[in-house]
# Entry
Amino acid sequence: MTATHLLSVADLGADGIEEVLRVSDSFVEVSERAMPKVPALRGKTVVSLFFEESTRTRLSFEAAAKRLSADTMNFSVSTSSVSKGESLRDTVQTIDAMGVDALIVRHSSAGVPWQVASWVDCSVVNAGDGWHEHPTQALLDCFTIQKELGSVAGLRIAVVGDIKHSRVARSNVLAFTMLGAEVTLVAPPTLLPPSLDGWPVAVSTDLDAVLPKADVVYLLRIQAERQSEALLPSLREYTARYGLTRDRARMLSDDALVMHPGPMNRGVEIAADVADLPRSTVTRQVANGVAVRMAVLFLLLGATPK
Ligand code: CP
# Structure
């Protein structure tokens, strides 16, 4: 990775993704040690700047930075001077002036990580911007598929659910197709983007027809917090047509994976017991996420002298 920032999967290209996956592999071994720590980023400082809620991404980046021996700082909006009216620009330039090396940025508005990158001297990693992108989620999902099934190339991947409001869908479709997978989006028309021009995907409204042929079924949560209008008659009807119920899971081939980026709504897009099947990679995705984020931080910061 020669770039200063990781903002979009598109910036990496297939070669960049492959490089991150290769480096991630070596960091899995580090995470499995009794003392899961290497001195690779000693002297570097990584700051989490989350303007939107997170469990996995925030803690995963923090664990990744600590395992690389970087110092970490956490920014909390509610206890910061943002509540006194300080602008985003002044906030990030204040933090940058403290001599930090990377800002991990999550924000509810699309494009904020690009804005931040234009204002600071340090590296910026997009940890999710609005409906737009979540590149490290896509990287950890590709890594998980590669570990479980050998390769992403040639696989048939069904991405099911609220595509319209999903940054994960946007980044994952880019990454999966760059690595040679065939992607089918499965959703009610109201949960698809208004235009799919430029999306290299097939589209279906018939989950039952797609499941038997899928190597991976990737489920997305209904993102009610990003919906300003009623797009579904009811969650019960959504589950009846698009939920991965126990009966539908039986339609999958023996080796097919069930994936979900989390947070899950058990009983809506995925049945509670399906989420716990051996073929469900949900917790393995989380574990792999730490190694992948170690690789991203190492590739961005490892070669630059403090
Ligand atoms: N998958 C994901 O981004 O989860 P969090 O919102 O908990 O970080």
In short: The first helix runs from residue 9 to 32. The radius of gyration is 19 Å. DSSP finds eleven helices and nine strands in the chain. The first strand starts at residue 45 and ends at 50.
